Amino acid sequence: MMLRQMRYFIAVVEANSFTEAAERMYISQSAISQQIRALEDELGVKLIVRGNRKFTLTPAGEYFYRQGKGAVDAVEKLTRETIRIGRDSESTLRIGFLRCYSGQELHEAVADFAEIYPEVAITIVAGTHEELYDLLRTGGVDLVLSDQRRAFSDEYVNFELLRCACTIELSSRHPLSARESVTLEDIGLIPCILIASREQQNAEEDYYTNTLGFSGNFLFAENLEEGRLMATSGRGFVPLESVGTLPPPQTTLTRIPLVRDGRPITRNYCVFWRKAGTGYYIEEFAGILRSLLKKKSI
């Protein structure tokens, strides 16, 4: 228990705020305060002198922070190495992501993970929401990055990343390209270009029509690059979600926010994996990805 409390204490000191530290550690402010009081009770000394809005460290608190930070880092390194040695020498992490995803943070997360765990072989597959769900359900992948289309299931870890704004990309020559935002009514007569395999076209069309409220005709592309080329030629628009940092649109395309009643339309993005298949590498990768997304959203 003390190791977790030490992490909370270090987070409070480095954030200089109980509130911000609680957000970073994904617990409530009252919970992190209780854990630090429990740490002080266990040690038998005060570490923090609390004021109305600020706090200061006692001499014991200063010492505990300096020495504790090194101790926590050493324990985390020890944990990683122990797990690495105990696993097969040829471990694999299988990642699935949406065909229409184009954010940069997934690439950065893969690179960061590979640097920390070079012994883990990473395989990556793209698919529609339904294709990824089937792969996860049948054990074809370990985790997927996808939008939330179902109520959360108790059989899965539903690791929420962020709510992201919906946008469209369409030809820069189109009259709507000069708009700061568009509504579903504005684009109702323009074909919507969905990224889907032939087998999943009906499922994607049904979701965009009956759940999201798109009312126009639908065209399909096998991948995002093909869809963007179709949009460039004036055949329609490509719906995209701003999951993290998107690369700038090509000069032939304009990216426009999609709004309803003057407010951005948003979608919930998560990393999903089966609870029965939970493993250290899966949790580590999900944490790296969420950290990168939160950093870029600040």
Kindly list the characteristics that best describe this protein.
298 residues, alpha/beta, Arc Repressor Mutant, subunit A, D-Maltodextrin-Binding Protein, domain 2, 3 domains, 7-stranded mixed beta sheet, 9 helices, 24% strand, elongated
Write the layout of secondary structure elements.
Elements: H1 2-15, H2 18-25, H3 29-43, E1 48-50, E2 55-57, H4 59-86, E3 92-98, H5 105-116, E4 121-127, H6 129-138, E5 143-147, E6 156-171, E7 192-195, H7 201-210, E8 218-221, H8 224-232, E9 238-241, E10 253-257, E11 259-260, E12 263-264, E13 266-274, H9 280-297
Parallel strand pairs: 3-4, 3-5, 7-8
Antiparallel strand pairs: 1-2, 5-13, 6-9, 6-10, 6-13, 11-12
Question: What is the compact description of this entry?
Answer:
Helices cover 42% and strands 24% of the residues. With 298 residues, the protein is α/β, with parallel strands linked by helices.
Structural features, described:
The structure is a single chain. Helix 1 crosses helix 4 and helix 5 (105-116) crosses helix 9 (280-297). The chain contains nine helices and 13 strands. 30% of the residues are buried. With 298 residues, it is α/β, with parallel strands linked by helices. The chain folds into three domains: 2-86, Arc Repressor Mutant, subunit A (Orthogonal Bundle), CATH 1.10.10; 92-162 and 268-297, Periplasmic binding protein-like II (D-Maltodextrin-Binding Protein, domain 2), CATH 3.40.190; 163-267, D-Maltodextrin-Binding Protein, domain 2 (3-Layer(aba) Sandwich), CATH 3.40.190.10. The two termini are 31 Å apart.
